[in-house]
Amino acid sequence: MRQPSVISRRVAAAAAVLAVAAGAAACGPEGSSKGGDGSSGAAGAPKKGGTLTVLNSAPQEDFDPARLYTSGGGNVPSLVFRTLTTRNREDGAAGSKVVPDLATDLGTPSRNATVWTYTLKDNLKYEDGTAITSADIKYGIERSFAAELSGGAPYLRDWLVGGAGYQGPYKDKKGLDSILTPDAKTIVFHLNKPEGEFPFLATQTQTTPVPKAKDTGTKYEEHPLSSGPYKVVRNEGDGERLTLERNTYWSPGTDEERKAYPDRIDVRSGLDSAVINQRLSASQGADAAAVTTDTNLGPAELAKVSGDKKLAARVGTGHFGYTNYIAFNPKVKPFDNPKVRQAISYAVDRSSVVNAAGGSSLAEPATTFLPDQASFGYTPYDAFPAGKTGNAAKAKELLKEAGYPKGLTVTLTHNNEKNFATSPEIATALQEALKKAGITVKLRGLESNAYSDTVYNVKTEPGFFLGGWGADWPSGGPFFAPIFDGRQIVRAGYNFNSGQLNDSAVNKEIDEINKLTDLSAAAKRWGALDKKVGEQALTVPLFHPVYKRLYGESVRNVVISDWTGVLDISQVAVK
Prior knowledge:
alpha+beta, 4-stranded antiparallel β-sheet, about 25% helix, about 15% strand
């Protein structure tokens, strides 16, 4: 999280997630099935064959495993790129689990979780029939360090011994000594600190095998060598039009996660969201066998769809691990006073915020920073109970104690983009609620790029602004630490620790939790830490987004997990 270029990409991605609801935690629609035996959508069991069309707003840019910022293998990328581990392709909470992919298991850790060893499955092959080796995975990771292939998640750079100074195989042909391949089926990682969540990191596309002899550098994205059930036969406009066909050397016997029902995947991007939803609604021609992985139904569209039983039956519902919140910068007055932050916490009317976010079908009120899913360590608490509509009387009492008996005036910075998350609608709802507590809120709207550049810079960070945070994978570590670990405060680049908290006890507990390889035990401690930090009122959790997506009437086997919150196209059938 410390490279500004990577961080800015993540901020942009997070904004895109909110603008089009690109990911959410999940339960599939009624009748959806697990994995691949039942059916959802059109009647009948799923069968092989046909063409699945994907209608998206954003193109699948940088289709190179080194450059993608995904976890669980991604959605479209996961059809081509297999990784050491991947997400469990099941509905709901079961889908938040990490499972083996190329590897035989989740890895064997050393006693202190600083060394992780993986063994590859037998009979793994690329689209050209050649064998996949551990050396290919090592090389695939190393090339992700090259400056010209930047864009992926920064964890390997941070976690691997020697990773911080490594510049990739094009400049340093020796490679990383911290990745060992004693034989063709074994790969060993040496980390500079204990990381019990390494199996989650191993789901990143950077662990995709890339044979050195086939590496074409920045042109590799045009035709990456497939290790998954589909291969790329067309890539136009940097992912705007992507066509995938079957990889005949992929063996389902080595892959329990991908069903690969369609014969062909046709990805068409650069479309207006309203057009996508209209086409999915009409389901004419090829659009009957179409889905979207990045376009949500907005409040007005959802109201229309909800009134039509046939359309409503084709809506998938998901909840991605994401929290929208108010952020405070205690370095700016009057937010240096905890009682002012507490007063605002009590004054918030979450009902009006939820309505501004599109209503209860699209947003759920939040009182915890961690998302309300067990995999994150969710522990219910409400440090400043304000009820559904706020507690203005308690807020006024705290303001008086803070030295503001007649109230105060503050400025709230928000994004001008109409994303129902950090946008004017949410800001206005908060403005009206705080007014009841004697707090006059002036609104400061910024265009999207200026908003990100302003609020994520310690030099320009305002005292009071709207923020949001999503998970790189469904657990407490990558969700909690970037916001509250003092060692992750970035002075010269994008900084997400808005409260600039640098508490030695909090930092120590983060380190202790990271040592745990028992992820259930770790989750409980993340939840306890969330409650402890939440009492400092450095943020005010507002809501967790809910995602509603249409799919074509011929689409079967809809699976939406708590890892991504979106329809998993590796499970979809169209016949």
